[in-house]
Specification:
GO terms for molecular function: hydrolase activity. The protein folds into 3 domains: 11-123, Nucleoside Triphosphate Pyrophosphohydrolase (Alpha-Beta Complex), CATH 3.90.79; 125-155, no CATH class; 158-299, Alpha-Beta Complex (Nucleoside Triphosphate Pyrophosphohydrolase). The protein is globular. Helix 5 crosses helix 6. Strands 11, 12, 13, 14, 15 and 16 form a 6-stranded mixed sheet that branches. The protein is α+β, with helices and mostly antiparallel strands and 301 residues long. It has helices at residues 27-34, 97-100, 106-123, 198-210, 260-269, 288-299; strands at 38-42, 48-51, 54-55, 58-59, 71-77, 80-86, 94-95, 135-138, 143-146, 152-153, 158-166, 171-176, 188-191, 215-225, 230-238, 254-259. The longest helix is centred in the middle third of the chain and has 18 residues, at 106-123. The chain is built from 6 helices and 16 strands.
């Protein structure tokens, strides 16, 4: 079977937002833009205000007369400066990226994904990795500086591979994590370890999770995944469906080989939230896993 490719970039990879990196250290420009800037406020559960038009912003001037230290400058949108801020309590109609992402356009998705990733990093970076001293936000929220020695630390992103394993014909291997409800399956994934290449991570993770060897590892695409601050790097690989599956590291509750027609039927049903008694339910469209499965399902006869 010929190799398949993603039909289009994953939803969260489409980033039309102008990040305006050149302004992050320009305090005068940031101050000047604050008067008509908008702030995307996010609570500690990753929820924010959403209405029928999408993301709901708070006028910056209602928060303070000048940029506040805990806000992050995201860029310029609609001619206005756009910031993000973590807050304790939000009122009104709330949603999050997982539940509302499919209803947002590409620009709104890039705004929300960036906001979640950088705010999640700040939540775990209050102290220096060098000496444990307290750190404070700098560069409009795109770094943190140690209060003891001035060392500047930058946002951390954790790379993870996600791999669609197929048999080279009409079967794909899908798995369910122990915390997932029954019948919810997806492709295999895992974090890249220190000193490890992406391809080596694919080999190791699949061996650890389901006990089989893969070959013909092929890059498909990538997307940010701010849960809390990862980037998912997609691959496909082939394996022998006759090799017994063995769940070696406890991260997989069950895994099965599914036929292409089963996957096509499951895709037509919708996603994990579908009210169906189907044996197979698949991820929603904000995940690169969905695009990988759609591309593989469409590639066969």
């Amino acid at each position: 079977m010929p190799r398949f490719e993603l039909a289009s970039p994953p939803l969260l990879s489409r980033s039309p937002l102008n990040r305006a990196e050149e302004l992050r250290k320009d305090s005068a420009a940031l101050q000047a833009g604050w008067s008509d800037a908008e702030v995307l406020q996010v609570d500690h559960r990753g929820r924010l205000r959403i209405d029928e038009s999408g993301l709901v912003y708070t006028p910056a001037i209602e928060i303070a007369a000048e940029p506040v230290p805990d806000a992050v400058f995201l860029g310029i949108h609609g001619g206005r400066h756009l910031w993000a801020q973590r807050v304790g309590v939000l009122t009104g109609a709330l949603g999050d990226l997982r539940t509302a992402g499919e209803n947002l356009d590409e620009t709104q998705l890039s705004i929300l994904t960036s906001a979640l990733a950088i705010l999640n990093w700040h939540a775990s970076a209050s102290f220096s990795a060098l000496d444990g001293a307290a750190t404070t936000p700098s560069s409009a929220g795109w770094s943190r500086t140690s209060t003891s020695n001035g060392h500047e630390e930058f946002p951390r992103t954790d790379p993870a591979v996600i791999c669609l394993v197929h048999d080279g014909a009409d079967q794909v291997l899908l798995a369910r994590a122990p915390a997932w409800p029954e019948r919810r399956f997806s492709v295999l994934a895992g974090f890249v370890e220190a000193g490890e290449s992406l391809e080596t991570c694919v080999l190791r993770e699949i061996k650890e999770e389901v006990g089989i060897a893969v070959s013909d590892i092929t890059y498909l695409g990538s997307q940010p995944w701010p849960f809390p601050r990862s980037v998912m790097i997609g691959f496909s690989a082939t394996a022998d469906p006759d090799v017994p599956l063995r769940f070696l590291d406890g991260e997989i509750a069950e895994a099965h080989w599914f036929h292409r027609e089963e996957v096509r039927s499951a895709l037509e049903l919708g996603d994990w939230a579908t009210d169906s008694d189907s044996r197979l339910l698949l991820p929603g469209s904000i995940s690169i896993a969905r695009g990988m499965l759609e591309a593989w399902a469409a590639s066969g006869s």
